[in-house]
């Protein structure tokens, strides 16, 4: 069973572990705890059969929801978790007028997911990422 729960002090370490396994520049437990104090932040943890499997972080300011981070452990990918986390964000942010995110140009799987969620490319940040140097595709809906 999949459950999407709000990030809190009790599960923040699980999100940090996921980040360390999924991201080149992982978010620390300290960074995630800081998110909890931001009134514009909406961070959720995806759990499958009670085990933390992914998380999403979004800030919503002045009607614009910006996805700051989304990651799913490799063994849980292609099971609908990222989509379920987006649906949770849409549920808690019904007044968001615009949604924005950025993604590595080479991350074709993520781009395909975002396109299936109605996102389209609206810009490009040249050489935005390091290790390796790569463009960031800006997507919005």
UniProtKB/TrEMBL annotation:
Belongs to the acetyltransferase family. RimI subfamily. It comes from Ruminococcus albus 8. NCBIfam families: rimI. InterPro entries: AcTrfase_RimI/Ard1 (IPR006464), Acyl_CoA_acyltransferase (IPR016181), Bact_Acetyltransf (IPR050832), GNAT_dom (IPR000182). This is [Ribosomal protein bS18]-alanine N-acetyltransferase. SUPFAM superfamilies: Acyl-CoA N-acyltransferases (Nat). The keyword Cytoplasm applies. It comes from the Bacteria. One of its GO terms (molecular function) is protein-N-terminal-alanine acetyltransferase activity. CDD domains: NAT_SF. The gene is rimI. Acetylates the N-terminal alanine of ribosomal protein bS18. Residues 2-141 form the N-acetyltransferase domain. GO terms for cellular component: cytoplasm.
